[in-house]
Amino acid sequence: MSEQLVEQLELWHEEDEFEEIVDAVLEVPGEERDYVLVSHLGRALLNLERYEEALEQLMSVEEEGEEDPLWHYRVGFSYYYLKQFDKAVSAFETADRLDPEDEDTLEFLALSRRKAAKKAAKAAAAEASAKKTTGLRPLPKFDGANFWADGTEEQDDYVSEPLTDGLIESVEEQLVFKLPAFYIAMMKQQNGGIPRNTKYPLGNQAAEAGKDHIEISCIRGIGRTKKYSLCGEQGSLAVIDKWNYPEFGVVICDAPSADQGVVMLDYRPAGNDGEPEVVYVDLANNRKVTYLAKNVETFIRGLVSVELA
Fold it and tell me: What tens digit of pLDDT does each residue of 42-97 get?
């Protein structure tokens, strides 16, 4: 290993040139990378928030790092931001044993313990809730095969990656709202897209609203990678912030034009963990809120074709 390279890596670190570090170390053949180079690479990846890659690199030198408190700290840091809090606690405890009273280690150890306890409590509550609801009406079947309009040009902007429990949990944590069970079940079949039926009749609300239906252009998927997914570049939080929509819930559908309005899950009656109502927020009418349905299942099943609206 070149001492000149290590000096350059340290200089780049001080200058926050983390991509330079990654590129330089990866240019060294894998069999020639020693513990020092891999440590520099892992640190740079952590600074770039590429936590999975950082953990993979750090674990490749696990044997050499066994007695290094800094290695255990970086492993714990990776696990913490990957939301694997139990593993983070274990790593930070080892780092603390090897280098007692390090302030950064103690801070993240305390944070990890709190997060792990909170996650365990949430899992226990979910299990208790599942047991409590045993014997209730099962979630009605949803025919996703005939619901979505296949082959539309805009489809790729809305269909997110297949759902995992971890993705659902992280999206809910970012949104600070628990997503409805029917919506999740629906998205497990196809995670967002353009529906065949895009009109929702207003019924008794028509006279008050001044129109007999609202129209949607899409249903947002649960994810981050697609532009219009719930936590994507133009996701719920971004839309609420940009257009100053009320912050009582989650934007799940858009009107055909950005200056018209959105369909939102309204958590005000039930709280952030309850079953939200569905409302339309009319941007063109001073963000007027119109009640649509008692829950997302009623709204989805109430969509009709253009001809029937």
Answer: 999 999 999 999 999 999 999 999 999 999 999 999 999 999 999 999 999 999 99
Tokens 């799940």 belong to which residue?
Answer: 252
Going from the N-terminus, what domains does the chain have, and what CATH number goes with each? 3-119 (1.25.40.10), 144-302 (3.40.1580.10)
Please name the helix (run of DSSP H) or strand (run of DSSP E) that holds residue 78, with its range, or none: helix 69-81
24: tokens are 């330089």
**Is the separation of the CB atoms in 192 and 220 below 8 Å?**
yes
DSSP bridge pairs for 261: 282
| pLDDT tens string 257-294 | 877 899 999 999 999 999 999 999 999 889 999 999 99
Helix (H) or strand (E) holding 249: strand 249-254
User: How far apart, in whole angstroms, are the C-alpha atoms of residue 288 and residue 293?
Assistant: 16
φ, ψ of residue 146 in degrees (nearest 5): -105, 5
Closest to 46 measured CA to CA, from 35, 61, 56, 36: 56
Q: Quickly tell me which residue has 């997060």 as its tokens.
A: 115
Per-residue pLDDT averaged across 120-137, rounded?
A: 63
Selected residue with higher pLDDT from 62 and 307: 62
